[in-house]
Amino acid sequence: TDDPMALALFQIEGVTSVFMTADFVTLTKAPDADWGVIAPAAQAILEETFGA
């Protein structure tokens, strides 16, 4: 993908897939990855993209 937000989300350690539509984003994580690490990083990217 060439979408900057998707590329940023893929940079989060443990994220294995990103699915986006006009009104939602779904992330899939590796089995050993921790949502406690992924969620805040993803939230920061979304807030940077769309505003807080």
Task: Outline the fold blueprint.
Elements: H1 4-10, E1 15-20, E2 25-29, H2 35-50
Antiparallel strand pairs: 1-2
Architecture overview:
The structure is a single chain. The protein is an alpha+beta fold. The protein has one domain (4-50): Ribosomal Protein S8, Chain: A, domain 1, CATH 3.30.1370. The protein has helices spanning 4-10, 35-50; strands at residues 15-20, 25-29. A hairpin with a 4-residue loop joins β1 (15-20) and β2 (25-29). The termini are far apart. The mean pLDDT is 95.
Task: Give a short synopsis of this structure.
The chain is an alpha+beta fold and 52 residues long.
Instruction: Give average pLDDT, whole number.
Output: 95
Largest sheet: 2 strands, antiparallel
- Count of distinct strands: 2
Report the portion of residues in β strands: 15-25%
CATH class annotation = Alpha Beta
Order of helices and strands: HEEH
- Give the fraction of residues assigned to helices: 40-55%
| Assembly category | single chain
CATH-defined superfamily:
Scaffold protein Nfu/NifU, N-terminal domain
Order of adjacent strands in the largest pleated sheet: 1-2
Q: Based on CA inertia axes, which overall geometry fits?
A: globular
Q: What structural class do you assign from the helix and strand content?
A: alpha+beta
- Judging by the overall fold, what is the CATH architecture? 2-Layer Sandwich
Distance between the termini: 25 Å
CATH topology, anyone?
Ribosomal Protein S8, Chain: A, domain 1
* Domain module count: 1
Number of helices: 2
Low-confidence runs (pLDDT<50, min 5 residues)?
A: none
- The Rg value, from CA coordinates, equals 10 Å
